[in-house]
């Protein structure tokens, strides 16, 4: 029995593949295997002999079975190691210099803003760029006759002839995502919604497509004070300054009541913007407490819930932060501009790693 054991332990140790192992298993402990045949001999033994040989044979069978299993696992581990070695790829290798692209300032700033608000517990929400006029206007308390519809220089889509339904629009702001999020998630809510918006306008500071970021926080006891704190935290983190003064200017938006436009203290001394000190004020966003009509349109009960909202131009704050003079250049795809104002491709902005290194 010892010879049998040594033979198989040796063969198993030297087996080079799973199929070789399987052959050995059949040969040793398969139905007609050497050890199984020995077990059949037990019947012809005297009870005394059997009492000795039986347990030994069983133990041998178990030993062979576990040696097979251990070797099988070792072979699998070895195969995995081989694969990991051969399929290895160094993702840290630098891109070939000639093909090196850059991250567009709009993408960079969107990532920065997202990182800052994510840190305050805001999730990212999205909505379609082609919107029904209900989501873009009515639900936001802008009825059909409201001058805001005309002011926004809306792009309308065509309906087929005879189709009387109101046309879809290219969304003129990210505010419709407020309604969609309320309908989908219900209260409480804490989201930002970055994205493309469209208005028929074109000059130094306007392009027909541009980017906004919407903010919405709904809960039982949210106030303007929460709004102010959130915006202060945002501005400090975004402009990377320790202190900043915000000014809330009373304003009007149909979807908020009360409404405020928010300015930050700054200086333009020497032609460059400095945030936090100085005698100038820079308007950066519109905001307010969500109008009860708007909550209702989102199926949120205004007797139970309230909250704040804000809307900010991403391109505008990108121009301010990175000293980019002409908005139109954002969308020219001029490689020299992109190399100059673009950001390193693997430098993802995080609060811990630095936003704009
Ligand atoms: N939707 C507004 C616009 O595009 C911006 C805005 C103002 C959004 C106030 C808001 C808000 O959420 O509360 O001009």
**Sheet of most strands:** 8 strands, mixed
CATH architecture of the largest domain, by name, is: 2-Layer Sandwich
Oligomeric state, counting identical vs distinct chains: single chain
**What string, H for helix and E for strand, traces the elements in order?**
HHHHHEEHHEHEEHEEEEHEHH
Helix content: 40-55%
Can you tag this structure with a few keywords?
elongated, alpha+beta, two-stranded antiparallel ribbon, eight-stranded mixed sheet, 357 residues, BirA Bifunctional Protein, domain 2, 2 domains, single chain, binds 3,4-dihydroxyphenylalanine
3D structure, described in words:
The chain has 357 residues and is α+β, with helices and mostly antiparallel strands. It has 2 domains: 2-86; 105-344, 2-Layer Sandwich (BirA Bifunctional Protein, domain 2), CATH 3.30.930.10. The chain has helices spanning 2-14, 18-29, 34-41, 47-86, 105-119, 133-136, 147-151, 176-185, 224-239, 292-297, 314-322, 335-341; strands at 123-124, 130-131, 169-170, 189-198, 209-219, 246-253, 256-267, 274-275, 280-290, 306-313. Strands 1, 4, 5, 6, 7, 8, 9 and 10 form an 8-stranded mixed beta sheet that branches. Helix 5 (105-119) packs across helix 11 (314-322). The longest helix is centred in the N-terminal third of the chain and has 40 residues, at 47-86. The radius of gyration is 35 Å and the shape is elongated. The chain starts with a helix and ends in a 16-residue tail after the last helix. Bound molecules: 3,4-dihydroxyphenylalanine.
């Amino acid at each position: 029995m010892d010879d049998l054991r040594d033979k198989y332990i040796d063969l198993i140790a030297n087996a080079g593949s799973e199929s070789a192992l399987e052959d050995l298993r059949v040969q040793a402990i398969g139905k007609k295997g050497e050890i199984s045949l020995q077990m059949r001999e037990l019947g012809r033994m005297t009870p005394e002999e059997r009492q000795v040989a039986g347990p030994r044979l069983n133990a041998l069978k178990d030993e062979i079975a576990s040696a097979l299993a251990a070797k099988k696992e070792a072979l699998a581990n070895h195969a995995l190691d081989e694969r990991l070695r051969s399929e290895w790829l160094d993702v840290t290798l630098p891109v070939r210099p000639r093909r090196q692209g850059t991250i567009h300032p709009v993408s960079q700033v969107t990532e920065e803003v997202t990182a800052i608000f994510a840190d305050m517990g805001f999730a990212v929400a999205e909505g379609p760029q082609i919107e029904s006029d209900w989501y873009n206007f009515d639900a936001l308390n802008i009825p059909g006759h409201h001058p805001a519809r005309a002011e926004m220089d809306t792009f309308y889509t065509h309906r087929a002839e005879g189709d009387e339904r109101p046309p879809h629009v290219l969304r003129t702001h990210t505010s419709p995502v407020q309604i969609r999020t309320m309908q989908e998630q219900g209260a409480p809510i804490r989201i930002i919604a970055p994205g493309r918006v469209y208005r028929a306008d074109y000059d130094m500071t306007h392009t027909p497509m541009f980017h906004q970021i919407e903010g919405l926080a709904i809960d039982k006891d949210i106030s303007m004070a929460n709004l102010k704190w959130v915006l202060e935290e945002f501005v400090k983190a975004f402009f990377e300054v320790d202190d900043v003064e915000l000014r809330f200017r009373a304003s009007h938006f149909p979807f908020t009541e009360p409404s405020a436009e928010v300015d930050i203290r700054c200086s333009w001394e020497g032609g460059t913007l400095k945030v936090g000190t100085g005698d100038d004020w820079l308007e950066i966003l519109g905001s307010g407490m969500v109008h009860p009509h708007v909550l209702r349109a989102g199926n949120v009960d205004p007797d139970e819930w309230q909250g704040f909202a804000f809307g900010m131009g991403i391109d505008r704050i990108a121009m301010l932060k990175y000293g980019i003079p002409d908005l139109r250049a954002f969308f020219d795809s001029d490689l020299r501009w992109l190399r100059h104002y673009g950001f390193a491709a693997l430098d993802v902005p995080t609060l811990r790693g630095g936003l704009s290194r």
